[in-house]
Amino acid sequence: MTKRTTTPGPLRRRLALVATAVGTALLLASCGSDTELPQNTLDPEGPWARKIDDLWWLVFWIAVVIFVLVAVALAYSIWKFRERPGDEDRKIRQLHGNTRLEILWTIIPAVLLAVLAVPTVATVFALAEEPPDALQVSVVGHQWWWEYEYPEFGIVTANELHIPVETEVYLTMTSTDVIHSYWVPKLNGKMDAVPNRTSFLNLYADNVTPPDDPLLGQCAEFCGLSHANMLIKVYVHDEQGFADWVAAQQRAAPVPTEGPAAAGWETFNLVCTACHAATVDNAGTIETVGQQLAPNLTHFGSRQYFAGAWFLNTPDNVHDWLRDPTVMKPMAPQLNDLAAGRILGMPNFGLDEEEIAGLQALLELWQ
Ligand code: CUA
Q1: Distance CA 301, CA 273 (A)
Q2: Is 233 in the pocket of ligand 1 (CB under 6 A)?
Q3: C-alpha–C-alpha distance, residues 319 and 353, integer Å
Q4: Which of 36, 77, 131, 320 has the CA that lies 20 to 30 A from 256?
Q5: 195, 179 in Cβ contact below 8 A?
Q6: Contact 276, 290 (CB under 8 A)
Q7: 130-167 pLDDT, tens per residue?
Q8: Contact 231, 38 (CB under 8 A)
Q9: Where does the pLDDT of residue 32 fall: very low under 50, low under 70, confident under 90, or very high at 90 and above?
């Protein structure tokens, strides 16, 4: 019989200690709710997201109990039935075809799943309920930006959703091209925006967001080249702040009559209106010009971001965008079919510096 080598006691104890410490650290790190993570679904900021969070933790702790039971049973079996000196010829009892065991380990998981199905299905139905008197917003997914319409206020905007705090908001969603998915993790779960279909999503925010620090969301369904650059920004206002925002958005954009902005208005009508719309006040006449295939630019100057909320609305960024948008964001404008209303991005129009300066002056005017 050969003498078996084992790890000496103190070293073994030290290894066990290190393993325990590392394991505990990992566990604690994953448990901590890190408010620095902008898209943390485990850090809900409203009741809809909290329902999902509650369900997640319930399932998590049930899973932890099962894990501990299985792990303890496994560890005990490994220790209890370990090979001892003289065991080399030991016959292991075979369990194949043990009906009682097989029924048992089929029934236990089935019962567990049935138990978990109760709160899961209840949550699914609870999330789908439309609250009374909710603020209605229509959402349209586009390659690669989001369009919002507030029917009761006559407002159309893009990428940045503005909502009042502690108010039910009911999104009615669809898409013009491919399937997108609307996901603001701190407010609710994902909901697909599907062409020729209507889907619904509830939002409710507990807290007002700082003016330049909106909640972050993301298109969560792969939708082509700029899927990753199709962001969602949610600005949560107090009652007065939201009323102010609505009032500002309801004003028509001024049509300038002199200076670079007036030249920009000419360029806008020659180039931009093929895809972009704007509601303007033209010497007292309120009219909407242009096609609404790309973001409505009436209040472009008031937005913090543009192009799928991928870029900050700074003079440098807007200049570079007008210079050549295709180098800033992956798009496929060569596939644009204006007659069919299909837009896959903004082409490079080869604008000169004067035209760019004019458009920038116009867009800055359009708060
Ligand atoms: Cu839209 Cu991904």
Answers
A1: 17
A2: no
A3: 9
A4: 320
A5: yes
A6: yes
A7: 999 999 999 999 999 999 999 999 999 999 999 999 99
A8: no
A9: low
Instruction: Choose among 330, 310, 322, 326: nearest CA to 351.
Output: 322
Q: Which two tokens stand for residue 166?
A: 């502690």
Q: Is the pLDDT of residue 297 over 80?
A: yes
End-to-end CA distance of the chain: 89
Runs of H (alpha helix) within the chain: 9-31, 47-80, 99-127, 239-250, 259-270, 315-323, 353-365
Burial class (CB in 10 A: 0-12, 13-18, 19+), 61: exposed
Instruction: Give the model's pLDDT for residue 2.
Output: 46
Nearest atom of ligand 1 to the alpha carbon of 144: 1
Which residue reads 């007065």 in tokens?
A: 240
Q: Which atom of ligand 1 is nearest to the CA of 193?
A: 1
pLDDT at 4 over 60: no
Q: Could you count the other beta carbons within 10 Å of the beta carbon of residue 270?
A: 11
Which pairing describes strands 253-254 and 135-142: parallel, antiparallel, or unpaired?
A: unpaired
What confidence score (pLDDT) does residue 289 get? 95
Does the beta carbon of 55 lie inside 6 Å of ligand 1? no
In this prediction the pTM is 0.84
Tell me the average pLDDT across 164-181.
Answer: 97
Q: Residue 184 in contact with residue 171, Cβ under 8 Å? A: no
pLDDT at residue 203 greater than cutoff 70: yes
